Amino acid sequence: MAVLSFVEIADGKIKKASVEAAYYGSKVAESLGTDSIALVIGEAPADLLATLGQVGVKKVVQANNARFNSFDSKLYTKIVAQAAAESGATVVVLSFNNNGKLLAPRLSVKLKAGYVPGAVELPVFNGNTAVVKKNVFSGKASAEYQVATDVKVISVNPNSLPPIKGTASAEVVQITPTVADTDFTTVVKGVDKITGTIPLTEAELVVSAGRGLKGPENWGMIEELARDMGAATACSRAVADVDWRPHHEHVGQTGLTIRPNLYIAVGISGAIQHLAGVNGSKVIVVINTDPEAPFFKAADYGIVGDAFQVVPKLIEEYMKFKNAH
Amino acid sequence: MKILVPISKVPDTTSKIAFIENNTKFNPDGVTFIMNPTDEWYALVRAIELKEKQGGEVVVIHVGGAETEQIIRKALAIGADKAVRVDADPTDAYFVATQIANHAKTENYDLIITGKETIDYNSFEIGGMVAELLDIPAVALVSKLEVENGVATLKREIEGGTETVEVKLPLLVGAEKDLAVARIPNMKGIMSARTKPLTVVAAAGTDKLTTVVNYALPEKAKQCKYVSPDNVGELVRLLHEEAKVI
Q1: Which residues on A lie below 8 Å from B158 (Cβ)?
Q2: Interface test with A, best of B13, B40, B176 (most A CBs within 10 A)
Q3: What does the pLDDT average to over A51-62?
Q4: Fold of A200-324
Q5: Is-same-fold flag (A2-183; A200-324)?
């Protein structure tokens, strides 16, 4: 028996979402009294992988082959399924991130395993049955999925269970999965990364703004606040649609769904479609001139006031705080 | 090119969410149901655009009861050529995916395009499951899709950017914003939708892998704590000392 977590490497680092998945896997292993094993597909330095020991991983199995470096959902499904069978995994944990969202349901079919997409809490076991909570209806409700299959697949919503790190080091073992040439289906032709900014879906702090800023030329203070705080910038659909801001910043029902620790919304009214993308945030701060803006109902902290006065003050106060801490 | 578009029925975004039968079922009373937005706006419209350019056929498939026919007719009005409804209650994702895959196995589709996720369960389970059941490649969160000589070129979302990939057909695609621009059915479309073929088939098998045992609403609405715009320092203090997020 074991719990197997799927871990991804990007830009020479373990993806933040994957560290969370590995930590979640370790917590599940702990509750089942079994070992936490992580799987890495493709090349990565062993000393980097050994750091997964800090989140409770006992052993890292690595399919260390350059041919496996880029994500291919068909190929990866086969490799993860083999690793799961070899390690006798009863639970397979992935992140509910871009790749995990596709890989996990494929694995569910391959392993005939019940799948819980986007878990927000650890599973509760009763014998062979697990009950796992996830958010539904764009965060307006939650649902408990019951899974009774022998193997279970769980993908973890980013920022749901912040890892507590220790100092242990994981053993790293190489594996050689059996694959055929026909398993390689996806050829990467190019990558277009937005450099110099924090990926929105991985950011712990997000500063977001909307129509209330009146024009794209006014985003300087939003970017400054984000830079000072080490936050990512986001925006509402309305301003992405008129090209005040790039589309990849758009959060909401038809854009990105994010769950940062802190979401600061400036000049965004908070229509239900926008809330659907951000209401998983731990703390929401709303700054708006309109006291009737619906966003205040979803906020933890609110300032009714003019963004052009409040945001510069916030930058000033934040810098005072930062210099003092 | 033969393209299959699975469509899902979801409560309209503004619906009031409530549960019945001891919190084990969604309460459909007074709820307006719509076609899942990413299925309609991006998956279906891109399928129709590809057909218009290269010829072929667009088929929509839906797993659900007769009451969903209005949604299927809307897909036909937007421009799908025919529709299949699997007459069954969509109990879990694996069950639904099995029904779609069973149909797809008999028809040899070049492309299957789904939405990126439904707005009720927010999962994107069906796409991946169907691809694995058919043992075909799949790419999710796709914002650009072109097909030439049996090869698809796609742009997909990765953390902090996008990646361009090439995949041979047959292929399953999970459609994301920007893949197409939503279309509103015109009068001609609405008229012709009435006579386009809609085949109803029985479900095959009852296998499912998960059960929702309990739904819950958030315990209580948040209580917003207001800070004066003249005392912004107080907000920073609260975020540090009370909320502990900075």
Answers
A1: 10, 98-99, 191
A2: B13
A3: 98
A4: Rossmann fold (3.40.50)
A5: yes
Instruction: Report pLDDT for B127.
Output: 97
| Domain A2-183 belongs in CATH node 3.30.70.100 | no
In angstroms, the separation between the Cα of residue A146 and the nearest Cα of chain B is 5
Per-residue model confidence as pLDDT tens digits over A188-228 = 999 998 776 778 888 899 999 999 999 999 999 999 999 99
Whether B56 has a pLDDT exceeding 80, the answer reads: yes
Give the one of A109, A117, A194 whose C-beta lies nearest to B132's C-beta: A109
Contact between chains at B159 and A97 (C-beta distance less than 8 A): yes
Contacts 24+ apart (CB under 8 A), A292-296: A293/A268, A293/A269, A294/A269, A294/A270, A295/A265, A295/A268, A295/A269, A295/A270, A296/A270, A296/B224
Domain ranges of chain B: 2-217
ipTM of the complex: 0.94
A190 touches chain B (CB under 8 A): yes
The ranges assigned to domains in chain A are: 2-183, 200-324
Three-class secondary structure of residue A103 per DSSP: helix
pLDDT tens, position by position, B198-245? 999 999 988 999 999 999 998 766 789 999 999 999 999 999 999 999
Residues 6+ apart with CB under 8 A from A242: none
- Asked if the C-beta of A299 comes within 8 angstroms of chain B's C-beta atoms, the answer is yes
- In CATH, what number does B2-217 get? 3.40.50.620
**How many interchain CB pairs under 8 A, A with B?**
263
